[in-house]
From TrEMBL:
Superkingdom of source: Bacteria
InterPro entries, A to Z: DegV_domain_contain, DhaL_dom, DhaL_dom_sf
Lineage: Bacteria, Bacillati, Actinomycetota, Actinomycetes, Micrococcales
UniProt-annotated stretches for the region Disordered: 1-28, 249-312, 382-412
Official protein name in the record: DhaL domain-containing protein
Domain DhaL: 34-232
Species for this entry: Nesterenkonia aurantiaca
Xref: Pfam families: Dak2
Annotated GO biological process: glycerol metabolic process
Length: 412
């Protein structure tokens, strides 16, 4: 599958008109840890403003209309993590933010965004300011982490937009006369956002399900919104969402029409896992693992599964071999499988916390399999195609916690 986008093969880019204007933000430029905080604050505000169109675009992999809310929850967790930290090290900030976001993440896009943010951390450890060359290295690592988190990564999604963004940043870093200067990073950002916009536009033609619904990928569009916030953080130019209005499916459709409804009508009343099957293929199945007695774990929080199946989100403590084995078993029980480590380092027994996501028609077997694999710190199963409650914290009530954020860090 081709998903790489090399700089040499693309036409010249120009900044989007909305990002070329010298319209100053009221709060001006910030740098270092304050800039990370500002980015998450602006990204939170940007996603709040655009949550409805992002939800409306959501048709892949499941049209459950929650992409905007899931990505917003991830960014809120990142912002809260930064506000609770006193470090000036960018790597430490992104690592902590990504870990917290992953432990609270929901949905494909919410989880992948948390993985992306966590992936930015490693190349930025020891750095107190972001440069175009450092950003390039961070995006390379984020790209590897994000593609490898999914069992079956697909082009035409947030992953393709991430690829395009990394390609553009790498290209700009190579061309910069002074790649360690703030000016080089500022000069690159309009082109980065423009490249992300083109990549989002292209998703409609990359996935047949998006083409049928005449929409772009919701996760990719959400990443574009987050990058618009990053552009504003770095350049001091106010966020401008006007170009998003031209994205297929972004504007409010005629009354009674919804992209997810159109997708469901096209698909018919079929098993969501059969969408990509060809004639003669067999329906995904799998052997049931013998239950084992596990160590004390969080009580599963489940809803009665709808005919469309369930989305399972859980955190399990495993060593890497155990995580690989669990991934293999989950592949037999469902699809949209994400298995990714939350922790950067193992505990004394060599285990990590792993965040797990899967869509399944066999939630009871999935629950048994997960709990047999290792100590489960949290487990939640929710019916697919049921829009979640628009609350800031979508975790089950038994796991919810109250956080009191200290004053904002980006005071100038």
């Amino acid at each position: 599958m081709q998903h790489r986008d090399e700089p040499s093969s693309r036409p010249p880019l120009r900044p989007l008109p909305g990002h070329a204007r010298a319209q100053s933000s009221a709060r001006g430029k910030v740098k270092g840890a304050a800039a990370v905080h500002r980015w998450f604050l602006l990204a939170e505000a940007a996603l709040e403003r655009n949550v409805e169109p992002l939800n409306r675009l959501n048709v892949f992999p499941i049209p459950d209309s929650d992409t905007g809310e899931n990505m917003l929850a991830t960014i809120r967790a990142c912002r809260a993590s930064v506000e609770a930290s006193s470090t000036e090290d960018l790597g430490e900030l992104f690592a902590a933010a990504g870990s917290r976001a992953m432990s609270e993440a929901y949905g494909n896009s919410g989880t992948l965004l948390a993985v992306l943010i966590s992936g930015l951390a490693e190349p930025l450890h020891g750095q107190q300011r972001l440069t175009i060359s450092g950003f390039s290295r961070a995006l390379e690592r984020a790209k590897v982490r994000s593609w490898s988190a999914l069992t079956d990564p697909v082009a035409g999604t947030m992953l393709s937009v991430l690829d395009a963004v990394h390609s553009e940043v790498h290209h700009r870093a190579l061309r910069a006369e002074e790649p360690e200067s703030r000016a080089a990073l500022e000069a690159a950002m309009p082109y980065v956002v423009s490249r992300a916009f083109l990549a989002v536009q292209a998703t409609r033609e990359q996935l047949p399900v998006l083409q049928r619904a005449n929409v772009v990928d919701s996760g990719g569009a959400g990443l574009l919104v987050v990058l618009i916030a990053l552009h504003s953080t770095i350049t001091g130019i106010a966020m401008d969402f006007a170009p998003l209005q031209s994205l297929p499916g972004w504007q409010q459709p005629p009354a009674g029409h919804h992209a997810a409804d159109q997708h469901a009508a096209d698909q018919g009343p079929t098993d969501h896992r059969a969408a990509d099957l060809q004639p003669g293929d067999q329906q995904p199945g799998g052997q049931q693992r013998t239950p084992e007695t596990g160590s004390p774990a969080a009580e599963p929080v489940t809803e009665t599964p709808a005919p469309d199946g369930s989305e399972v989100m859980c955190t399990v403590r495993l060593d890497p071999l155990g995580a690989a084995s669990l991934r293999h078993q989950l592949d037999d029980l469902g699809d949209s499988v994400i298995v990714t480590p939350i922790d950067a380092n193992p505990d004394e027994e060599g285990t990590y916390r792993w965040r797990i996501h899967v869509h399944t028609l066999e939630e009871p077997r999935t629950c048994t399999t997960v709990h047999a694999a290792g100590p489960v710190e949290s487990y939640a199963a929710t019916a697919l195609h049921h829009s979640p409650d628009n609350s800031p914290d979508r975790r089950p009530a038994a796991q919810a916690e109250t956080t009191h954020a200290p004053p904002a860090r980006d005071q100038e």
